[in-house]
Amino acid sequence: MKFFKAVIYDIDGTILNTLNMNMYPLMRIIREETGEEWSFERVLKFAAYPGMKVVEELKFKNPEQVYARWVKYVNEYEEGAVLYDGFEEVLPKLGEKFRQAVVSAKTREQYEIDFCEKGLDRYMETAVLAGDTREHKPNPEPLLKCAERLRIAPEEAVYVGDARSDQEAARRAGMTFGYAGWGNEGIPGMGLSEEQILSEGGLVFRRPLDLLKLLEYAQ
């Protein structure tokens, strides 16, 4: 049986539901830039992409300006980022046994708006964000940077995320992957194979409270 010293989390689709606050503003951007009306289902394929990659993929002129306007719309979105039910219990309880951190493609500014303003950063020892590494997930560099900051070996951590890029980054970093099965619920083609995750030594969690099972792996 494996034992861990740290639990590292992705943010979007894992701790926070940010789907609506990102996708509806993206639909607005596409309408403004192209005049086309895209459905919510159509833009969902971009849900797991880093922001600038979305803008580049859509081949907008002046991508940096368009991205800045998208960020503005996201921050103005009334619903905002929503904490998944259960984390108000999970984070303090796991914090009693594990060191906790986040690795996310968010910018520092967006992290402060979505995460810190909710007081969630008090549970985290460190946060490795978009500007902290040269390479990004699925490259393992952000996870390895986090392990270095926590002064642990990569194999002493489990990385909890919802996307293929999270799974691949954990594999390449030598960390155990924990699948946040609630993050992509209802999004066609976004879910991961639970059978494959388990066969590769990963862990599967179907709801946030299932993360408390990690207490069995505390070192």
Polypeptide structure, described:
With 219 residues, this protein is α/β, with parallel strands linked by helices. It is built from 9 helices and 8 strands. A 6-stranded parallel β-sheet has the order 5-4-1-6-7-8, with helices on both faces. A two-stranded antiparallel ribbon has the order 2-3. Helix 1 crosses helix 4 (63-76) and helix 3 packs across helix 4 (63-76). It starts with 5 loop residues before the first strand and ends in a 14-residue tail after the last strand.
From the structure above, extract its key features.
single chain; 219 residues; alpha/beta; 6-stranded parallel β-sheet; two-stranded antiparallel ribbon; 9 helices
Topology at a glance:
Layout: E1 6-9, E2 16-17, H1 19-34, H2 40-43, H3 51-57, H4 63-76, E3 82-83, H5 87-95, E4 99-103, H6 108-114, E5 126-128, H7 141-150, E6 157-161, H8 164-173, E7 176-180, H9 194-199, E8 203-205
Parallel strand pairs: 1-4, 1-6, 4-5, 6-7, 7-8
Antiparallel strand pairs: 2-3
Silhouette: globular
Amino-to-carboxy terminus distance: 11 Å
Number of strands: 8
Portion in beta strands: 5-15%
The secondary-structure element order is EEHHHHEHEHEHEHEHE
**In which range does the helix fraction lie?**
25-40%
User: How many DSSP helices?
Assistant: 9
Largest sheet: 6 strands, parallel
Rg on CA atoms, Å: 17 Å
Model regions low in confidence, pLDDT < 50 over at least 5 residues: none
What structural class do helix, strand and pairing data support? alpha/beta
* Strand order, largest beta sheet: 5-4-1-6-7-8
Averaged pLDDT? 93
